[in-house]
Every structure is written in C-alpha cells, then in structure tokens.
Amino acid sequence: MDAKQVVVAYDFSATADVALEYAVDIATREPGNVLHFITVLDARKGIGLEPHPTVDFAYADKVQGLLQEKVRVAFERHGATGEPAYFAHARIGHAVHEVLELARDVGADLIVLGSHGRTGLRRLFLGSVSEEVVRHAECPVMVARPKRYAHIDLDKIIEVHREPGHRRQRHGTWGNRSKQVGPTDWPT
Length: 188
Prior knowledge:
Blueprint: E1 5-9, H1 14-29, E2 34-41, H2 57-77, E3 85-92, H3 95-106, E4 110-114, H4 120-126, H5 129-136, E5 141-144
Parallel strand pairs: 1-2, 1-4, 2-3, 4-5
Helix pairs in contact: 3-5
C-alpha cells in the first residue's frame, strides 16, 4: 500500500488543535501515512503569537520550530510507535493559496483543517479559509470541529447463535421487494 500524503493546516488556534489531533490519530492508526503540517504567516502580522518587528524567514523558522514541538507532543500523547513520518512547513502568504499549493506540491490524498465556525457578517468580512479550501481542493478535505453531541451509551451488540437449518426472516428494508420490468417486446 502506498503512503498517503495528508496536508494539515495549523494556525495555533483551538480549532486547529482539533485538526491536529484528528490527523495524528489517522497517522497512528495507519503508520504508512505522511503528514505535512503547514502554518501560513500573514506577511504583515505573522500569526499573532507575539509581537514581531518583521515577518521574514527567521520568524518563519521560529514558527516552524513551534509547530514541530506541537506535533511532537501530539504524537507522544497518542502513543505513536516508531518514528512517525511528518514535515512541518511555515510559509508566508495567503492561507488558502499556500495550503492548496502545498497539497499540489506533495500530491495530497487528504487535507485536514479546522473551522472557526464564523457566521453572518463576520464570515462575510473575514472569509472562510476552510470553505475556500473545500471549494478549490483537488482531493478530499476533512473539516475538523470539536464534538458537541452529548455522549450516548449504546447497547452492546451480541451474537445470537441459531439452530442449524433455521431460516432467517428478512424485515423491513432488508428484503428485496423489487421487480424487474422491461419493454413489452423483450423476450421473457
């Protein structure tokens, strides 16, 4: 099986943490995958972690180091065995463009990113990176969000042993109730 290339957009926000956790979970369950974490820096203000006089390659290297540390800690938390395959990218530019360009560069099989869940005027003015990535990506995109459903304890499924020769009845939609109909001049 060929390794899957997974691009993970990460901006140090709470929703990006959810995307990071999903991606690391995917990688620990299927160790052949290669993860490409990307943080995109705004050319004027960086990512807002701390005041910085200029957004240059030194700043990008610093952010890349912070990203590598976040990813390392996430893999440790998930109990990854062996050496997980991942790369940390810090790029300066427009988030949608840089995420899609990295996806093209590595031949991505999946893009994982968080959603801030903006609606109304905030979404209109600020835009939606996740929505644009979904619209323009050339591979599947997973928009990760925190689970908000209440936990439900479901009944356990138990196996029932039947007597030999016992015929199972079909119920509801399990039965095949279709009838083939063709033109009247077809031979029957």
